[in-house]
Design brief:
By secondary structure, the chain is of the alpha+beta class. It is built from 4 helices and 9 strands. It is 20% helix and 35% strand. Strands 1-2-3-9-8-5 form a 6-stranded antiparallel β-sheet. A 3-stranded antiparallel β-sheet has the order 4-6-7. β2 and β3 form a beta hairpin. The two termini are 15 Å apart.
Length: 125
């Protein structure tokens, strides 16, 4: 399993793209998708919602369990990926591409996000 180098990662297994015009894309990692199993339902924050770093902002339900989705940054949700709501399996098949979850205009960024190498070491531990 390879974690894209250009992304940053949270210890709750979310990834965060580089910020463009103040907006970053957020999803869950391949590690998290594999641990959850087949995802059958996705609840995302709505456009206009404010999310807070480290706090729950949605949930993912798989055939195994229900897991909270945590915001890796603080900001306002500017887009939710309707494709994963309609087809939750995208989170499993393309977690770093079409399976992204939402986009947020960042107002606060924690300093504990991990690089790809740090995240790989964290999940190997």
């Amino acid at each position: 399993m390879s974690n894209p180098q250009q992304l940053r990662y949270s210890k709750e297994h979310e990834w965060l793209s580089a910020v463009e015009d103040g907006v970053a894309t957020i999803g869950i990692t391949e590690h998290a998708a594999n641990a959850l199993g087949d995802i059958v339902y996705v609840q995302l924050p709505e456009v206009g919602d404010t999310v807070t770093a480290g706090e729950s902002c949605g949930e993912l339900e798989s055939t195994k369990s229900v897991s909270d989705l945590y915001a890796p940054v603080t900001g306002e949700v500017v887009e939710a990926n309707q494709n994963v709501v309609d087809d939750p399996a995208l989170v499993n098949t393309a977690p770093f591409e079409g399976g992204w979850l939402f986009k947020v205009r960042i107002t606060g960024e924690p300093d504990d996000l991990l690089s790809a190498d740090e995240y790989t070491a964290f999940t190997a531990g």
